[in-house]
Amino acid sequence: MKKILTLMALFLTALCTQAAISIIDTNTGGFSSGTGAVTGSVSTAVSLQEGDVIVVSAATNKKGDVSPITLVQTGGTGSTDGQTVLYNGLTTYPTSWGWFMTVTNAGSFTYELRSEYITAVASLHVLRANGGSIALAGSAAWDDTDNADNGFSYSLNYSFSTNLSGAVLIEAISARTDLVSEPATYTEEINGSDKRVIASHTAVSGTSWSSAYTLSGGDVDKQTSGALGMIFTEGEGAEPPPTVSPYEGTNVLFIAIDDINPILGSFGNTLIQTPNMDRLAERGTVFLNAHCQWAVCGPSRASLMTGLMPEQTGVMGFTKMRGDAVNDDRDNARGVTNIVTIPQLFIEYGYETAAVGKINDNRCVGSINPDGTINEDGYSVDDPPSWSYGFENPPGVGSTTAVRTNDGVTVKLAAESVDQPATDFIDGAIATGGLSLLNTLAAGSKPFFLGVGFKKPHLPFLAPKSSWDLYDRDDFNPAPFPYAMANATPYTFNSVTELRNSYYLETDSSGNALQLTFDILPDEQQKLLRHGYYACISHVDEQIGRLLDELDALGLASNTIIVLWGDHGFHLGDHNEWGKHTNLEQATRVPFIISAPGYLPGQVSTAPVGLLDIFPTLCELSGIPEPVQPPNSVDPNDRPLSGRSLVPILQDASAHVQTGIMNHYGSGTYGYAYRTDRYRYTEWIDSSGVIQARELYDYELDPLETVNLADEPGYEGLIYQFSRSMRNADEAHGCDRLKSSAPAAATSANLTLRGIELQNGQISWPDAAGVSWNLMSTSNLTSGTWTTKQTGITAPIIMPTPDPQRFYRVDVVQ
Q: Span of the secretion signal (predicted)?
C-alpha cells in the first residue's frame, strides 16, 4: 500500500470565531497512486483545541475494483476520538469519501490518505463551534451507474430533525470524465481538472437543504458520477467534551498463545469449547487464512515482533535477535543490533508497555551488556528494550516429575489431568499477572501496550481436570490421514520428533516409561492426546475470559485494540507428525483475531495474511509511523517493514492486501511456501540458489494434503505463475535467497491454467502477482482452432455477452 497524501495541522495560537460553527482551516491537494509515487503534499499551521472537529474528504476517479482509501493519523502530539467514515456506494468501491473526528487532546496532527490505483483530490477542514459541541446533522450521496447524458443535473438532498442555522456543508463530487459545476454560492476548495470537486458552504439553514450539481462535456459511455455530502451543526445545549482520563488513548492488549491450531468455535470447530475467544471474534475480524512465517516458536515470534521475515532477523532457530551472545557455544551473532520491536516503538511514541508470560521466545532474547552482547537470561527478562515495566514470569503448576525409559532417556508425561484450581496452573498465574498489570496501566497517565503470552497448548498437554471434563474421550477421532502424501519430497518432513523424543504416555510394570515408536500411534493414544490438547485450549480460553472481563469492567473495551494470535500450529497426527517444524498447513496456519475500536464487528476474512502483518497494522491503527528496519537504513522498495497493514481488511472483510503470504522453513535447504486463497506452492532452494524440490497443494479439493501435485500432469501452468508470483518484489520482500534464485522454467509453449471458473459472466482463475495471461476460445474442443480473445490480462475479467457455445482457456504469458 502506497502513501499518497499528507495533511497536517499544527498547534499554534487560539483563534476566535463569531458564527455558530466556522471553518478555521482548510488544506487541499491532489494525489495519484497509479505508480505508487507521492504526488501531493500540503500543510498548514492552525490552532487545534479540544472540541474541534477534523473533517477529511476525498473525490476519486474510480468506480471499479480498486483499493479503498484509508485515513491514518501518522504523527503529531494531539489525539482524537474514533473516526467516523462515510462514503457513497457506487459499484464495488465508493468514489467519494468523508471522515470526521473530534479533537480530545489539543496539539498537532498529521494525517495520510492511503490507497492504490486512485487519482483524487482531497481536503482537510477544521471546524470550531462558538460553544457546545459539533455534531453531524445529516449526510447525502448519489451514485450514477447509468452513464447520464451531458447536461444532467444531480442533487444532494438533506433533511434535519431540527431547524438549522449557520450549519457547515462539505461535499465531495466525482465525475469520471464529465465537467462538474457546483452551486454559485459555494466555495470551491479544490478542483481536479473540473472532474473532481470538493466544495463547502457555511450558511446552511432550515429543516432541509439541496445542493444541485450539473455535469457536462463527458466522454460517451464514461459519464459515471458519484458524490458524498456532510452537514455539521452546533449541538443544542451540549457541553464541551469532558476531559479524558489519562489512559483513554488507543491501548493495545496483545494476546499470544503457544502451539495452537485454528480450531476455535469461531473458526468452525463444533467440538471445541472456546466461548471467550469466540466472543472476542464477535467483536472483531477473524482471519481464517493466517500463517506464521516459520513454524518454530523463536523464529516466528522474532518475525512477528519486528515485522520482518526470518531471513532478515537472522533468527531461523534459537538464536538471538539482537547483538552477539555471551555464550560462544551458540551461533548467536546477529547483524541487526538496533532492530526495533512493536512495544519498543510504542515506548518511543509515549506508551507504557508491559508483559507477562511468553511473548518473545526466551532463547532468542536476553538482557544487553554495555558492549552489545546478549546475556543468556531471557527466561526471566524477556526483551528489556521492549518493556517499560520489569518482566518476570510467575510460577505455576508444571508437569509431573520426569521419568526414564529402559534405554535411559528422560521423558515426561505427554497428557495429564490434574485436579487443582485453574489459577494454580502456569497459564492461570500468567492471567493473574496480566490482570495486575492491566489495573496498574489503566491507572497510569499514558496509553498502554500490554502483552499476555500463554504457554499452552504446548506439550505437555497438562490442564485442570475441569477443562478435561468439558469433553468426552469418545468424541475424539484419530487423525484422518496419518500418512505421507503421494509424491512427498525428501524435505517435506523433518527430523524433529517433538513428542516421541521427550514425552511418554504409558509405563511398564516397573514404572519405566514406554518410549513412543515412530509407527502410527494407536487410536486410543491419539484420542488421549487430542483430548489433552483441547483441554489445554479450553483452559487458556478461560484465562482469556478473565482478561476480557476486566477490560470491560475498567471501561477500556471501547478504546483498546485487541490482537489474539498463535505463534504457529501443531500437527495432531496428520502425516504421522506430532509437532510443528514443517511448511505444511497444520504447522503454519494459526488463529488470528483483531478487534479495533471503530471497525465492524463479527467479520470473517479468508484473505492470506501473515503474523508479520501485525506490526504495520498496529502502527496504522494507533497512528504511529512504521519504522524502517533497522533504524536509519534506506529501503529501496519503500517498504519499511516486510509485513503489510491489514486495516483495509478490517474495513472490508472481502479485501486483500496481498495475493499470497510467504513462510519458510529448513536448514541448509530452505523451503519457501507461498499460500494463496486456495493453493500452497513450495520451493526447496539450496544455498547455491538451485531449486531441489517443489510441492503444490490444492486445499479446496485436497484439504488433508494427500497428494503433492507439483509433478502431476496439467499443473505446470500454475507452477510457472506461482514461481514468478512468489518472487514478485512485494510478495518476496525479505526472502533474499528466493529472490536471487531463478524461477521454474517452462517446458511447454502453452501453459494452460487449471481452476478456471465462469460465473455470472465473470471468468476468473487462481490469483498471482506479477503475472499476466491470455484468454483463448474455441467453438469445438475436438477439431476447432483456439483463437486469442484477449491478451495481457492481469485480473479476472467480465465477459459482456458470454457465448454458451464457446469454450475458454487461460494461458500464462511467458
A: 1-19
